[in-house]
Amino acid sequence: MRPLTSTVGDVKLHGVINASHDSLADFSIALTVEDTLTRAKELLQQGCVGIDLGAAGSTQFADRVSTDEEWDRLEGKVEALSALGIELSIDTWNPEIMERALDAGANFMNASDGLQNPAMIDLAADRTVPVVLPFLNGNDPKSLEFVTGDPLETILPWFETTLVNLERSGIKKEQLILDPGTGFGPVDWVWEERFKFQERIYRNLERLRVFGLPIYIALPWKMEDGRRELLDILLDVGFDYGRTHVPEQVLNARREILGK
Q1: DSSP E strands: which ranges in the chain?
Q2: Tens-place pLDDT, residues 45-94
Q3: Distance in angstroms (rounded) separating the CA atoms of residues 196 and 184
Q4: Per-residue model confidence (pLDDT) at position 3
Q5: Which domains does the chain have, with CATH numbers?
Q6: How far apart are CA 49 and CA 6, in angstroms?
Q7: In which element (H, E) is residue 229 found?
Q8: d(CA 52, CA 77)
């Protein structure tokens, strides 16, 4: 059976596999190498061209794990996925984990620390692989005035400064893929507020094109409470990489938009 498609328009889809037990999207969890390969092949069959693999949850419900435990969750899985000859990103804020994963065959960095750690910066400069660079919006929504105004008035200057600093540190601009950080968020941020924040960013996503770099979006995996509306906005505006738990839903939404 042939994959549905490898892209949505010009978008590359990277399917999510969680090697930790505490992901909220429990269907994305794969704790063994065999289960990891099974899920990866399903995601590729459903339209992904790559895999995003993580082993340390970032929500308030996730365990905080040591470097050794995070690597124990990844070891074997990275090698097995890299043997598929696909784009393989590792989602971690730990530079030691990222280095081990690259040595084991990963070829993308999903730098969830926002490249704030000098060791992560040095690694990216040395390996010259593509790097997903997320804007980090902090932990307290009440202290973040930009969430109620125009978020891009804060996001754009942050990227402008960060890109200059990273180039000075030896990272090539063309390595970088910009993530507006909407997949992150303060703990206990009510959905209604998060929805408005994401909507403002997505409707104005083209403003991120000023940097001439690809745009990466963490796509919703639930479709209720306005999340499908957010997905439709994104598919209409356009982006370059989509991190998705549910590629078939993304593709179906795209078909509906094209059919209108």
Answers
A1: 7-8, 11-18, 50-54, 87-92, 108-111, 131-134, 176-179, 216-218, 241-244
A2: 999 999 999 998 655 455 678 999 999 999 999 999 999 999 999 999 99
A3: 14
A4: 34
A5: 7-259 (3.20.20.20)
A6: 6
A7: helix 227-237
A8: 12
